[in-house]
Amino acid sequence: MIKRGYMSRKILGFILCMIITAGAMTGCGQSKESSDKSAKSGSYSVSESKYDSSSSEVSTGKLDWNEAKKDITFDGNKIDFPFSVNDLGEGYKMKYIYDSAFGDKSCSGEVVTVDSDGSEFTSCYLSFDDLTADEYTDDTKCTSILSPNDLTVQGIGKGSSLEDAEKLWGKPYKKDDIFAFFLSKSGTERIELKYDTETDKVKSVYITLNFKEEE
Fold first, then answer.
1. Residue 126: predicted pLDDT
2. 163 neighbors 211 (Cβ within 8 angstroms)
3. How far apart are CA 106 and CA 103, in angstroms?
4. Which of 4, 90, 175, 206 gets the most CB atoms within 10 Å of its CB?
5. Contact predicate 187/210, CB 8 Å
6. Among 128, 120, 115, CA closest to 95
7. Consecutive 10-residue runs of the chain (215 residues): their mean pLDDT?
């Protein structure tokens, strides 16, 4: 059974960004017990990201989403994005689903993989626009995904360099000492890369559709 509830803090529609910013993804592949503890507590602390505002110019770069979406892999398998939990096949399940607590109709949840012995491990985090937790089913297509290990877009994923991403998608329209943000040409799709400042290597990938810049 999927556990449902409300998030206790502002998540701007996405539990994904909260978790990646707070560092809750450290040591991904966490055990079922640690997943239970963090999800039940609802205590996701947020460290606000400070963007580089040295330039007032916002460019959507070269990211062609129509091409990028043809080359997305998850757990080593090519997938169509957006996708549902059922699209992932056997061995995946939605464990927790949360409503946004701030009036916008959206929800987010944690997908786990289930081993043959019943052990569960965090696989990814998904979010869904224009949907409540009660309305969610495993056939619902996600609008955002965060996966720290096994998500790639056009070959860019964990271990890739920011230089390689920039060759494909142009300079990020925003960048700080944690994240680099790439917008599609249309400005409605965004790829967010968490990276290591010492090596410029990607640590995790976050894709969101229907992106709107905050004012």
1. 95
2. no
3. 9
4. 206
5. no
6. 120
7. 47 39 37 35 30 42 91 94 94 93 87 90 94 96 89 95 94 93 92 95 94 66
Handedness of CA 107, 101, 150, 188 (dihedral sign): positive
Residue type for position 69: K
Report if pTM > 0.85: no
The values of phi and psi at residue 144, to 5°, are -150, 150
At 213 the pLDDT is 66
pLDDT of residue 66: 94
Six-digit token string for 210? 């229907």
Instruction: Please count the CA atoms within 13 angstroms of the CA of 21 that sit on its side-chain side.
Output: 17
pLDDT of residue 4: 53
Residues 6+ apart with CB under 8 A from 31: 119, 120, 121
Nearest to 206 by CA among 124, 139, 138: 124
* Contact criterion met (CB below 8 Å) for 199 and 189: no
- Residues 50, 187, 208: CA angle, nearest 5 degrees: 70
Joined tokens for residue 159: 């271990």
Return the DSSP state at 156.
B
b/e per residue 123-151 (b: at least 16 CB within 10 A): bbbbbbbebebeebeeebebbbbbbbbbb
